[in-house]
Amino acid sequence: MLNPSQPPSIRVNGVEITDHAINSEMQYHPADSQQTAYRNSAQALVIRELLLQEATRLNLAPNRDEEKKETREEILVRLLIEQEVETPEPDDKSCYTYFQNNRGRFKTPDLIEASHILLPAPKEAVKARREIKQRADDLLDDLKQGASFRALAKAHSACSSKKDGGSLGQLTPGQTVAEFERQVFPLPEGLAPHPIETRYGYHVVHIDRKVEGRLLEYSYVKKKISDYLKARVQRKAISQYIHHLSGEAKIEGIDLKESDSPLLQ
Fold first, then answer.
1. How far apart are CA 45 and CA 21, in angstroms?
2. Which of 74, 82, 187, 199 is 20 to 30 A (C-alpha) from 88?
3. SS3 205
4. Which of 82, 91, 77, 19 is nearest to 49 (CA)?
5. How many CA atoms are closer than 13 Å to the CA of 86, on its beta-carbon side?
6. pTM, rounded to two decimals
7. In this structure, what is the dihedral angle of CA atoms 17, 23, 29, 35, given to the nearest 10 degrees?
């Protein structure tokens, strides 16, 4: 699976990053095109090699207990980062400022009570899905004209909830598939204005009740904010450290500045 646009040889201080290694790495770097995935994978391997060479130069070595939990390469990279990259702890002022500026992010999960009528359709069957979408639109029209949701659910739904008139009970984020909750949770109470499409088919949905999440106090989320800010600072510090190493190294066949993929996976 050699990429014709890829330079014939990529080396880090004389150590070759083989085409086979890059192709094997591609499974961890999904992208819109094979060329982008190849480039990102090559970059990741170059960075790994840079870090491992520096860890070797500094005579870093894992102990036996560590090697039971991580690979040798993972341990060496971690030890190097811990020793060479300084990450300051965020102070309380920084954490509280972030909390104030992002107040809406810190609340208990929203809760809804919803009912649905599931009309199944295979995702790959384009014609069948069009027909099912039309059936869902027809049911929606019937409901808008006063038809009973419970009766239509019992008559048409393919979900086991049909026996309860389509009721799904109380739902919080994470309980249903992502494409369903992404469309359903923002809806107001009442009948959804259009069928909801998911991998399973089309859902005619009624939001029976909606309870907005409760805003949390700063004391409950301070540790979470501190960890997030520290991780953000650390990612930037690691990026700068890698750029420093790459500036000191002889890298052939690839320019790390060309890609906007994460520098450290």
1. 8
2. 74
3. strand
4. 77
5. 1
6. 0.60
7. 90
What contacts 132, CB < 8 A, 6 or more positions away?
A: 119, 120, 121, 201, 202
pLDDT digits (tens, 9 = 90+) for 182-234: 999 999 999 999 999 999 999 999 999 999 889 999 999 999 999 999 999 99
In contact, 49 and 17? CB cutoff 8 Å: yes
Exposure of 68 in the CB half-sphere (CA atoms within 13 A): 3
Domain boundaries, given as residue ranges, for the chain: 10-90+221-258, 111-211
Distances (CA, A) of 199 to 83, 123, 129, 205: 47, 6, 11, 16
Q: For residue 161, give both structure tokens.
A: 């909830």
Written as one string, the DSSP assignment of 98-160 is HHHHTGGGSBPPPEEEEEEEEEE--TT-HHHHHHHHHHHHHHHHHHHTT--HHHHHHHH--SG
DSSP of 151-197, one letter per residue?
HHHHHH--SGGGGGTTEEEEE-TTSS-HHHHHHHTTPPSEE-SSPEE
Q: What is the DSSP pairing of strand 196-198 with strand 111-120? A: unpaired
Residue 88 token pair: 């300051």
Distance CA 237, CA 253 (A): 25
Which one of 3.40.50.300, 3.40.50.620, 3.40.50.410, 3.10.50.40 gives the CATH number of domain 111-211? 3.10.50.40
Provide the pLDDT for residue 67. 63
Q: Which two tokens stand for residue 42?
A: 């090559």
Contacts of 124 (CB under 8 A, 6+ apart): none
| 258 token code pair | 């060309």
